[in-house]
Amino acid sequence: DTGVSQDPRHKITKRGQNVTFRCDPISEHNRLYWYRQTLGQGPEFLTYFQNEAQLEKSRLLSDRFSAERPKGSFSTLEIQRTEQGDSAMYLCASSFSDGYGYTFGSGTRLTVV
Amino acid sequence: DQQVKQNSPSLSVQEGRISILNCDYTNSMFDYFLWYKKYPAEGPTFLISISSIKDKNEDGRFTVFLNKSAKHLSLHIVPSQPGDSAVYFCAASAPTQGGSEKLVFGKGTKLTVNP
Fold first, then answer.
1. B100 touches chain A (CB under 8 A)
2. Which residue from B40, B48, B43, B49 is spatially nearest to B86, judged by alpha carbons?
């Protein structure tokens, strides 16, 4: 197992377009998290899955954002009608049930032009 | 409002000396604290953590100290090495209704260790 994988690493899109990111967690981990990091800030929590169930969502996750984790394995994060303010690094992390010290992927850097 | 604060955006130290990175928090519900290290173009890497029931945790060159009454924690790196140059994030966790251990991060401190 090579850790948490995220695809793509970089995405440039035009404002108004939809984008989808994928995260493959460490296979033994049943928890999966999405965070967003903007320039000069620390990562901010977006949402969390325990297996296939999405149990928490941040207020940052507007109705243009949707996340899924079918079958409790990989996860996707979709942003509809992208805005320039969506430009950020989107980080995925996974962990065991005790949650602490989870493993982050390398992130997907989104640029909306 | 920022619940986890790292007031020093950057820190520069000489190789072999001690690096001390500081972090303050405001939420008294936080019960677990972590430090992450981040290199450019990579995700954060877990470094060391401490539970609120302890005041010190040590792992090799890294030691984290927690002062609950002051709502302050610090990371000590001794001796500092050039490979330690990275951005260090302080993070804290509190129990949530959904059962996640979601983390609240500070803005990070960029450490530069000069040879």
1. yes
2. B40
